[in-house]
Amino acid sequence: MTRALEVHPGTDAVADAAAELVTDRIQKAASQESPFVLGLATGSTMKSIFSRLVDRHQGGGLSFAGVEIFHLDEYWPPRADDPAGFAASLDALLVGQIDLAPGAFHPFPAGVEEDETANACAAYRASIASRGGVDLQLVGIGTNGHLAFNEPGSGRDSRARKVELNPETLARMPEGVDYHQALTLGIADILDSKAILFVATGGEKAEAVRRTLEEAPSADCPASFLQDHPSTTWLLDAAAASLLQSGESQD
């Protein structure tokens, strides 16, 4: 079992550490025959990580040719060509700027009618499983403890599904973004990943981080179920770690 907690001085140091870890995992897997399956989250915390990965590709020789990318969630129903959509965001910030093979980016299949959402979620899970599962999954956390769009009340055994967004999540939507539902991988799907990289920055995340790491796993704080995962790296800045009893690295 490998659990590592790293607390860095600020957001830039967290992004550097995250990009280094992703780079290391991709390069170590370069000689394997099967693709390296990278699961991505979106949001402001991830933007600086993606920027550093693009820099490493364009200037440092990091290749994504052997990588396949899935992501955690998507607004539903998506609006055509909406830049607020997570697939569109990933394409703009990362996918469109690296040497990913054609067809190696797998957007969450959110463009379906309501009666097809369950089948679409099941098909997405099956697509991940057919590639041997996610090798490394990046995740962040919401201020209410949500993981992907698994809002408070989501159980450990939850699977990919359509969800209603929590009022706190809705209140923190970027200006101009007006979605009330989403499709998301479930807690159990995320825990199926072989390794997880948890990233949180900023003081507004401190209470959710404390609950995630120091309280017993509970549906009240879905991210707390990550405590059950055998290979998780927790990257925090000092502000996000400010309410933890100990900020020291842990193995």
Key features?
251 residues; alpha/beta; Rossmann fold; seven-stranded parallel sheet; 7 helices; globular
Describe this entry's structure for a reader.
This protein is α/β, with parallel strands linked by helices. It has a domain at 13-133 and 140-179: Rossmann fold, CATH 3.40.50.1360. The chain has helices spanning 11-28, 44-60, 86-93, 117-130, 167-171, 187-191, 206-214, and strands spanning 2-8, 36-40, 67-71, 73-76, 105-106, 136-139, 161-164, 181-184, 196-200, 231-237. It has a seven-stranded parallel sheet, covered by helices on one side. The chain has a three-stranded antiparallel sheet with strand order 4-8-7. β9 (196-200), α7 (206-214) and β10 form a beta-alpha-beta unit. α1 crosses α2. The longest helix is centred in the N-terminal third of the chain and has 18 residues, at 11-28. The model has no long low-confidence stretch (mean pLDDT 94).
Brief description of this entry?
With 251 residues, this protein is α/β, with parallel strands linked by helices.
Helix-strand category: alpha/beta
The succession of helices and strands, N to C, reads EHEHEEHEHEEHEHEHE
Shape, per Cα inertia axes: globular
Approximate strand percentage: 15-25%
How are the strands of the largest sheet arranged?
1-10-9-6-2-3-5
Number of DSSP strand runs: 10
Give Rg in angstroms: 17 Å
**What portion of residues is helical?**
25-40%
Mean pLDDT level: 94
**Unreliable runs, pLDDT <50, ≥5 residues?**
none
Largest sheet, described in full?
7 strands, parallel
CATH topology group of the domain at 13-133 and 140-179:
Rossmann fold
Helical run tally = 7
So what's the CATH class of the domain at 13-133 and 140-179?
Answer: Alpha Beta
End-to-end distance: 9 Å
Q: What is the architecture of the domain at 13-133 and 140-179 at the second tier of CATH? A: 3-Layer(aba) Sandwich
